[in-house]
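User: quick one, fold this
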Amino acid sequence: MSEGYRDHTRPGASPASLDSSWEHALKVAAKRQQRRRRSRARAQGVGGGSSVLQPQPRPVSATQRQGAQAESRAKELLQAAGLRWVASNVRCRAGELDLVMLDGQTLVFVEVRARAAEGRHYGGALGSIGRAKRRRLCLAASVFLQQYRRRHGHQPACRFDVLTFDGTSVVWHPRAFDAGEHWR
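Assistant:
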């Protein structure tokens, strides 16, 4: 390091203080880089070496137990209809996918909704899936498809189905909405 350079950067600075300031700057840069890596990992849903898609913890409230029962029943009904199970309760930063099934070569993202019989006055189970929910489902599905493509080397056709439990009636709505609808 030349004397002119030192005088230009910090007039009157001794070589020892310049070395310590460089060490400090390097430490700060390393911490900043570490924070960026963690932030990127969180944005991608990765943490502690785990995959982007993580199963949801066991339900605890009565509503969550009811939802888990509906999802289990939906899985059984769809398997009886010939679909193959791929994953359940897939969570990522974008949202959650209740069920992921395969119908032939088509990947099916299934949203399960359960409502009491008196809930029909407010649109029922199907009416509870608004624009924001459809958007979250599409974003979560895109994260799932990225990982699927990485693992399997191709991206299958996909669709969004809804299975509703309104009181005692069960209705399967194949192709309930299109992925492009959430942007309208």
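User: anything notable?
Assistant: The helical segments are 3-9, 15-44, 62-80, 124-127, 131-152.
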